[in-house]
Amino acid sequence: MGLSRRGLLGAGLIGVVAPRSGEPREADWRSLAGGLEGTLERPGSATYDQARQLFSPRFDRVRPPAVVRCATPADIVETIAFANRLGLPIVPRGGGHSYVGASTTSSGIVLDVRALKAVGFDPATRTVTIGGGAPLIDVYNGLAGYGVSIPSGSCGTVGITGITCGGGIGAAASAYGLTCDTVVAADVVTADGRLRTVDAVREPDLFWALRGGGGGRFAVVTSWRMRTHPAGSTGTFVLAYPWADAAAVAAGWQAWGAGAPDNAWSTCQFASDRTGTLSVRISGCVLDADAHGEVTALARAIGREPTSTTVDRKPHADVLRARAGGTARGTHLIGSEIFDRPLPAAGIEAVLAVVRQRAAMRRPGLAKFKRMTGAPARVAADATAFPWHGAHAMVQWLVEPPAADPASIADGYGWIDAAHRATAPWSSGRYVNYLEPGPTDPGRYHGRHLARLRRVRAAADPNGRFRTAYPL
């Protein structure tokens, strides 16, 4: 029996057809829907509004012409072939958490892969195969019964593909590296509609770019294969300090992070709430060990005793679930800085002054340092497209506005812009998973890897079929 057209597309035996001029007709959309195992959502359908939503209500106004909810990799192939025939842009969607709405569009097809979320563990190789649309909480829960996990982020509804394509910084990073560092292969569909497996031997440039070069730019990932790490019990700690000790806390936390054991990871945050109250908090974990020793080491490095200390120890999976949060939608405004080395006193004061400014306005704002020393610093600079291996720390700027109205959004990003200016003398760049509204200089996010990423994108998607928030 001969292959159907769908089978030919899946086998990569039908080339790209020259785009047809004009908008798709209703008959075109019906034809696409008929070739899918998933569903095609169009304006006016009963489930269209739910299908087009991102995590943040800020983007609810965006109305894509179509959302394809892919049930299989073949649906991705079919949709890309359709887009190529009609000259339509494609915007892939995994978790839908992009802070700039990168996984929606008002002028193309949203390719939603969230149904591709299976998690399968291979005990022989201790690797996991993860569907390209899986949220992190499904990954963690799927691996918990095997006593293993992967190093990745804390928000449970974030998609595995987005965080991996951008890097992936989380509580196991100092011990086992970033999420992108654990990838051994990926199954993808490229802009020509071909299914491919990429790894260090097969299409190594594309494989390199998918690990840290930013999401939605090079291919649609249908599944990842990653190394896992043992996940027994984890010690956790939270230390609170008065604002009067903020400078000492920042200096001591940086000194601790430079020499802390790999199994210890921590954040250090300085925040203003909506009343203008300032706070200082260190939180972290110690893999497969009690946390009391690191609490003592931190207090010694800071030279101050905390006002409160909470120490616990739980199964690693329980710690991940506790950090994952709920599924409620929300608006977060995010920025970042990468610091290659510990901030001097002047740099620390610049960070604290920015937070004090926010408190004086009685508005929320947070500066959170995240450890990047340990295992990530030992990955070769060019091993993946993530450009900041070897950095000391990242700072996340965060505003959770009371509403998603334009004035609140402008106010929050105005504060983040002020933070960038204040810390510019020490900042090496920014984290691509924390994109900010553009236009922006892509070199700030990709550093020395920008030129190579541009070459890979030109080769993988010469017609610009995949549309991203900002081009390389």
Task: Explain what the structure shows.
This protein is of the alpha+beta class. 31% of the residues lie in helices and 22% in strands. It is built from 15 helices and 18 strands. The chain has helices at residues 5-10, 26-34, 48-52, 73-86, 136-144, 160-166, 173-176, 204-210, 246-259, 292-302, 316-324, 345-360, 406-423, 443-446, 450-460; strands spanning 39-41, 66-69, 90-93, 109-112, 119-122, 127-131, 148-149, 183-189, 195-198, 220-227, 229-230, 233-241, 264-272, 278-287, 308-315, 333-339, 365-371, 393-399. A seven-stranded antiparallel sheet has the order 15-12-14-13-17-18-16. A five-stranded antiparallel sheet has the order 5-6-10-8-9. Strands 1-2-4-3 form a four-stranded mixed sheet. A hairpin with a 5-residue loop joins strand 13 (264-272) and strand 14. Helix 5 runs antiparallel to helix 11 and helix 12 packs antiparallel against helix 13. The longest helix has 18 residues, at 406-423. It is globular and about 70 Å long. Residues 1-19 have low confidence and may be disordered.
**β-sheet strand percentage:** 15-25%
Identify the strand order in the major beta sheet: 15-12-14-13-17-18-16
Q: How far apart are the termini? A: 45 Å
Would you tell me the overall average pLDDT? 94
Biggest sheet record = 7 strands, antiparallel
Helix % is 25-40%
Category by helix and strand content: alpha+beta
**How many helices does DSSP assign?**
15
Q: What is the 3D form?
A: globular
Count of individual beta strands: 18
**What are the segments in which pLDDT stays under 50 over at least 5 consecutive residues?**
1-19
Rg over C-alpha atoms, rounded to the nearest angstrom: 23 Å
